Amino acid sequence: MNDHTPLGCNAAPVLKERGQHEVFCGLTGIIWLHRKMQDAFFLVVGSRTCAHLLQSAAGVMIFAEPRFGTAILEEGDLAGLKDANDELDREVARLLERRPDIRQLFLVGSCPSEVIKLDLSRAAERLSQAHAPNVRVLNFSGSGIETTFTQGEDACLASMVPELASTDAANLLLVGALPDVVEDQARALLSDLGIDNVQVLPGRRADQDPEVGPNTRYALLQPFLGDTAGALDKRGAQRIAAPFPFGEEGTTLWLKAVADAFGIEADHFDRVTAAPRARARKAVAAAAQTLSGKRIFFMPDSQLELPLARFLTRECGMEAVEVGTPFLHRAIMEPELDLLPGGARLSEGQDVEKQLDRVRADQPDLTVCGLGLANPLESEGLTTKWAIELVFTPVHFYEQAGDLAGLFARPVRRKALLAAQPAEVTP
């Protein structure tokens, strides 16, 4: 399962589907971004529905003061009876007066703001000038129109790249928002390898944002950051192509690609990674006993599907029946496709009714899907895993490899336990 020889899924045909899709919108990314960026505020320009989504998804009590909010568009704004820009300027001024700790303010577009063609990019420029130098105002779209929910982070980080300071120094840039403890683990591994000039996008605070230049090498931490990668390429940075750091194998190959880019000797690399690799293999093996031989079907949801399918098939012994992804970015996913065992059906985009028909026909042991599809499939006797949980849970690098495998093993074990229980007899 840990043979690193490419198995050649790159040439496999891809079923392209365009139809009804079931996903959260890009506003969902604010839930983890506002926790990561400690002096940023995300102001959604949207409807009450947008506000309810964020409040319920974040689980924030009504008396808490998080780093996000919604400037609600009323009927007058939507009908053009009010000047939405004047109202936005007023609300931003009130917000910054009440929250002087804010150093970065993101104006986040939504379906309603895009429908009425509210130009938030010009609003961000105007407000940046008005509140400089204390606050930098940027904008990105969190709209759910023809997008999936992880693209909210991609749009946010891509909006930051043009504003990053320039440098000619050689540095490593890690791209993607991770929980602080996981980021610290990655930094420690890289430091042990001898790579010290490491920066992260996004930084935890505005004064920790990275510098970018022609000698910057960057490695993606998340597979859904295609626009951010394109923006970094325009700044002259060079991407390190690698599988993503999920599981022992993915983490090792990701670290090895970075180490090779910085001229780290193979013997030193092996010494540094030997102990954490062994821990990861042992942790994954416990869950693999449950998963080995089981068949898995990925509905398109988060763009994590290909790396996860690679991890589960190669390290946990599962068989991938179908691997669906909202968007297949060939340049970024090539290392994953090289490793993914042949035989899996690959699909891009979504036509939910057709995919549900295939799930029912295939009868997999586990289906990874969105919340809206999980309960109906469970009612039909299928075992499911919520795709969004894989984004909210720490799953990267060696120390989380066992936890990642466990996320898939738990629903399979639960199904086995329920099946073993005697049926309740009602008199």
- On the 0 to 100 scale, the average pLDDT is 90
Instruction: Tally the beta strands.
Output: 16
Structural class: alpha/beta
How widely separated are the two ends? Answer: 51 Å
* CATH level-3 fold name of the largest domain: Rossmann fold
H/I helix tally? 17
Give a quick account of the main beta sheet: strands, pairing sense, barrel closure. 6 strands, parallel
Envelope shape: globular
What does the radius of gyration come to?
A: 23 Å
Please give the domain count. Answer: 3
The first-level CATH class name of the largest domain: Alpha Beta
Secondary structure layout plus pairing:
Layout: E1 14-18, H1 30-36, E2 40-46, H2 48-58, E3 68-72, H3 75-78, H4 84-98, E4 104-109, H5 111-115, H6 120-131, E5 136-141, H7 151-160, E6 165-166, E7 171-175, H8 180-193, E8 198-201, E9 211-212, E10 216-220, H9 226-234, E11 238-239, H10 247-261, H11 266-291, E12 295-298, H12 305-315, E13 319-325, H13 330-339, E14 345-350, H14 352-362, E15 366-369, H15 371-379, E16 384-386, H16 389-392, H17 401-420
Parallel strand pairs: 1-14, 2-3, 2-4, 4-5, 6-9, 7-8, 7-10, 10-11, 12-13, 12-15, 13-14, 15-16
